[in-house]
Specification:
Elements: H1 3-27, E1 42-48, E2 55-56, H2 72-79, E3 88-94, E4 97-104, E5 109-114, H3 120-131
Antiparallel strand pairs: 1-2, 1-3, 3-4, 4-5
Length: about 130
């Protein structure tokens, strides 16, 4: 791409980005990460077992959400058949709030506890800091 093409693309993209950010701030002013990239998104951060600090991706757990995100109801559905024999703990953080996840495969019991509104990212940061 010629230099002028990159400049023209940048000049066209920056106002769109600014408009998108302004729109995001206006629709959810008190939720700094619920707009923009995280709008209608929900990510799972799951650890295996109580003593393993490894964050497990969903493909390693042999569960595959239908989208690029993992929601609390979807995790409940994925674990309903009891095929996962790994104990799980972790968090689900999303634009609709956050959840603490505890799964006991021996009892086929999933406990989801709602995180306090507005504190999800701090709780996630603390959990990842502890896990690493």
């Amino acid at each position: 791409m010629p230099t002028w093409g990159a400049t023209a693309l940048t000049v066209a993209a920056v106002p769109l980005l600014v408009a998108f950010v302004v729109w995001g701030v206006h629709i959810s002013p008190n939720r700094p990460f619920s707009w923009g990239m995280y709008s209608d998104s929900s990510k799972g951060f799951l650890w295996s077992g109580p003593n393993n600090p490894t964050v497990l991706p969903v493909h390693q757990l042999r569960i595959s959400p239908t989208g690029h995100f993992l929601t609390a109801p979807e995790l409940r559905n994925l674990l309903a058949d009891g095929a996962i024999d790994t104990p799980l703990r972790g968090l689900i953080i999303g634009s609709d709030g956050g959840w603490q996840v505890l799964y006991d495969p021996a009892r086929h019991h999933l406990r989801l506890t709602r995180l306090p509104a507005g504190h999800e990212l701090r709780i996630l940061a603390d959990a990842l800091r502890t896990a690493l």
